[in-house]
Design brief:
By secondary structure, the protein is mostly beta strands. It is built from 1 helix and 33 strands.
Length: about 375
């Protein structure tokens, strides 16, 4: 495998730690919105307490990153947040690595998504609802506060909401909900029929991903029901009938050119230009048809994180695959982030890995106990 340089810079502080087939859209179905139900919400913030797990330079950092990193997120202050599968949330501020768990006020053990709102609050989608961090304390929200399910998968702040107001979308295993700062409002997305998909994740109302594009349109990725597009007035549903490669959506991403990419569980990825879909599968060079995430780096190169196939890089003409043979700690990858130096960070089932354009430096967790 030939590797092509992306950037030559490194991120030295973190080194101390771990860390196509073209189809035309037709037969599109539009849905009128039903009246939603609003349930009041609000739970007192929980001050951080308990014994924090704090790590500083000079120790064995390879044992400090949880074995499964589902999300990597950098906030506006430069803090790096690692969402783990089973160990809560981890924050790296450039000096120390801190784990927050239930003992410290964090409400879940599994973190599936992370977002920062315009007020600077950090939101976490967890297996115990939603958790908000204001820099001092955590506030948890669950079904008792109006969410349809405590299994939350996705978060998206509504960028069209006027200054001073709140509008945040959450995708759960029981549909989508919008939070206005006071209450959660359920959003009508039809449940998928999973009877003919025995290998599907058993959650027909799951909204696995939510994304707002550059025009303000909200996109909802579902578990078996394809994609829903919401323009503020009506919903439009796209499925395989309209050219989408698969109805089981894992992620949504918009590239610099404005194309929307949909990563799927069984069918590879679809690129949508507003008029038609172009689908990419293992028949075109993609390393796996189970794609968790699509990401575009500063050079305009697209990266695909897959479940079992490792990484795949696409330069617009051809695909290049990267696996454990090339230095990755695992071929199961869910999250991708690029730092200011141009290094790419990958969250895998065996810790995290950093790619500087030439090689991978990985920080797997082995019996970390975190």
């Amino acid at each position: 495998m030939k590797k092509h340089s992306l950037h030559k810079q490194i991120f030295p502080l973190l080194l101390l730690f771990v860390f196509v087939n073209l189809c035309n859209g037709q037969g599109i179905t539009n849905y009128s919105l039903a009246k939603t139900t609003t349930i009041s919400a609000g739970k007192p913030a929980v001050s951080i307490g308990g014994s924090l797990k704090i790590y500083t330079p000079g120790v064995d950092t390879a044992l400090q990153i949880n074995g499964y990193v589902r999300r990597i997120f950098q906030d506006r202050a430069g803090n790096l947040w690692l969402g783990t599968y089973g160990s809560g949330i981890c924050r790296y501020d450039g000096k120390s690595l801190v784990y927050f768990t239930k003992d410290n006020g964090f409400n879940g053990t599994v973190v599936r998504d992370i977002a920062e709102d315009k007020a600077g609050n950090i939101w976490f989608a967890t297996n115990a609802g939603v958790c908000r961090y204001d820099g001092k304390a955590f506030t948890g929200y669950s079904v008792k506060d109006g969410l349809g399910s405590n299994e939350v998968w996705s978060i998206q702040e509504d960028k069209t909401v006027p200054s001073g107001e709140t509008g945040i979308w959450f995708g759960t295993e029981n549909g989508s909900y919008r939070y206005d700062g006071k209450a959660f409002t359920g959003f009508p997305i039809t449940a998928a029929d999973l009877k003919v998909f025995p290998s599907a994740y058993p959650a027909p109302r799951l909204v696995s991903s939510i994304f707002q594009d550059k025009t303000g349109v909200i996109w909802f990725g579902t578990n078996g029901g394809g994609i829903y597009r919401y323009d503020g007035k009506s919903l439009t549903n796209f499925t395989k009938k309209e050219g989408l490669c698969d109805n089981f959506i894992q992620g949504i991403f918009q590239d610099k050119a404005g194309n929307i990419w949909f990563s799927t569980r069984f069918g590879g990825v679809s690129r949508y230009d507003g008029a038609s879909f172009v689908n990419f599968t293992d028949q075109n060079g993609l390393v796996s048809n189970f794609v968790w995430t699509v990401f575009e780096d500063k050079n305009g190169i697209l990266w695909f994180a897959t479940a079992g196939g490792g990484l795949c890089r696409y330069d617009g003409k051809s695909f290049t695959g990267f696996t454990t043979k090339d230095g990755l700690p695992s071929n199961y990858i869910q999250s991708i982030m690029e730092d200011d130096a141009g290094n790419l960070w990958f969250g895998t089932s065996e810790g995290i890995s950093r790619y500087d354009g030439k090689s991978f430096v990985s920080f797997p967790a082995k019996n970390a106990g975190c």
